[in-house]
User: What shape does this take?
Amino acid sequence: MDPVILSRLQFALTIGFHYIFPPVTIGLAWLIVWFMTKYARTGEKNLEDEIYYRATTRFWLKLFTLTFAVGVATGLTMAFQFGTNWSGYSRFVGDVFGPPLALEAISAFFLESTFLAILIAGWDRVSKRTLWFSSLMVAIGSTLSGLWILIANSWMHTPKGYKPVYENDELVKVELTSFWKAALNPSSVPRFLHTIDGALITGAFFMVGVSAFYILKGENKRFAKECMKVALIVAFLTSLAQPMIGHYHAVQVAETQPEKFATYELIEGDGTGAPMPLFAILDPSSEEPIFRIDVPFPDALGIVFFFDPNHDFQSLDELEDEGWPLPPQSLTFYPFHLMIALGFLFILMSGLGLFLLKNDRLYNESKVSKLYLFASILCIPLPFIANELGWIATEVGRQPWIVYRLLRTEDAISPNVAAGEILFSIILFTSIYILLFFLWMFLLIREIHRGPEMPTQIKNEGI
Amino acid sequence: MPTNLEIAWFLIIGFIFVVFAILDGFDLGIGFWHLFTKGEEERNLMFKAIGPLWDGNEVWLIAGGAGLFAAFPLVYATFFSGLYLAVMVLIWALIFRAISFEFRNELTSHKWRRFWDFAFAFGSVLTAFLLSVALGNVLHGFPMDEEQNFNGAFLDLLNPYALIIGVLGVAMFCTHGAAYLSLRTEKEIQIRTKNWLFYGWIVYIILFIIVSGYTIVGQEHLMDNYEDKPYLWVVPILTLTSIFLIREFSSRDLNLLAFIASALSITMIMVLVGIALYPNMIPATDPNLTISIADAAASSKTLEIMLIIGLVGFPIIILYTAWVYKTLVFEKVQANSTSY
Assistant: This one.
């Protein structure tokens, strides 16, 4: 077996698995801040509200903590894997890529883990205000962690703020020339907004689904209805924002990574007046489209992305003629379009939910309401899947480069690590990750069945 | 010769690993003693003594790794790829340990808990051992090729010098864990933890003397600074004194001082390591290929920016970490209370 393929496989497995967890924790962290605010504002007089918000917050916190722990455990791998499997990469980019990673640890990891300790064990020891502040720090910490790792990742897509260093006419590494140019490279801001919005969608749909479960079971009514309402509003607003942020991100990709954009949108010929594909089937071996349905108006791609029917995109053919290598077509195209389809489904689902809620038809036990609530439970995994699809599309779309037009993936591995050793570590990680995944699911479901811990009367009193 | 900026980063990385060893060190040590606890109540107590803190403690290791990547990319690349299998097993052990910690108390079933108890102890000891063996190998020196990549065999990593440092590390963390436990427990359990401290301490001090002798006799490349500047011998003497004091304080029931002496001994050992390596970071079997601080350091631009970030960030981190410890830690743990 080829060590390059194995190292790539291991990286994809470990980060793909890790990436299940952080988005939902970021989303939940901000929703927890909301409920913590409610809790902190309950006065001494209203004991019932105090018990209620305390239990509500602690319930979501419990689910958060379980997920966070898995995220930390699997994140450990990521901190060392650049060195173990990608020492060529580490030597080449360490000067530029290392600082955001160090910043992630300094500004985010300490913050979230330390203040989470207060949220886990401090309920009887600190004031409401301190608890509230701690929840805010956890949410800020988890978001900052996303910011720095996405900045590091963005630099691999659109490197800026560096200078190449040559030894004997060979490009051996890059050095930082401007921290701000490197950090605020063209894809950092759109990628951050897009990913964090995805995280909020994930957290919100998770809360909608869990609340729907209680309503269908007729349990925890007051709790479920309030969580449903808050989460539906967040889900709708964030889902609605996503096409706009996605548009902003896509325009940036078209401008800075034309190979990826042409692969996303199957741009052929000379690239002017390109059609916009809605659906296509690619030939498995040649990766050419054998069947495609386009948006039924001419020059759609230019109009949608640049408000200009005559926009001249760089097509796959043109880029190939210029000598640029192209990413794998299928593994970039399908995930990208599936992600977009899911994105629109999120708008529909959350919009429908708000509509039913507004017209008092969400909880009336009619067929529509039951069907909707049931569908909401089934929707829980979909944002997780959309996150993964987006990640696949963007990373595969950068291939064969590990740093766009600077370093090839095959030149980035550790030259001294043998294929057998990588195979061994893949088995090691796969075994523990499977165990971890089932444990997480099992404990999560058990915790949901158990529900928030509060007196039945407070739980069920409708609002 | 390294610049001041590079030396500053050598010290900062050292500082991060010292804090990691002191903080995560006690929970690694507790993992070992966990095997010798009697009854469910005592085991719960162990877990409560670590409480929700392990996660923040482990972040210091991640910070050390990331700091190394940013400040000394070459060391990061050579060290982690060179010790590939050991690092993979280390990560696996750390994950296993983290899961056991989070999930053990989720179910009350006896079998479930016993399984995770064992996983926790196993993961902790393996982590302590592998970290120390890795450090031992750095001290021993890597076989390297022209590109400064490790080119030895896996068995080269299992040399006697590194292995004995591995055991020394386990003994050090065990002593430290017992010192922490005797600080946080009372009555019969406290007496037992002080016995544990004694057993750990005997191995710790004996192995420290053996390893020191082995280094003087067998690892001459580590002795340059001590030969040039004889006053540096004060460091090993202070180290030995602080190890000696752990037991002295503990037997006089000065448990806080015993814990501080233990933390100090860990710090001094890291200082010893730093002096032995300076101005190098990874000695090579062929001295011409040795990776020095100056070879490995990132550009001065990167180091400058990182220094500013570190000087702003770490004081804040230390402040709130201290506050959280003060809020959650400084009282005795009770087996039957619901809080930590």
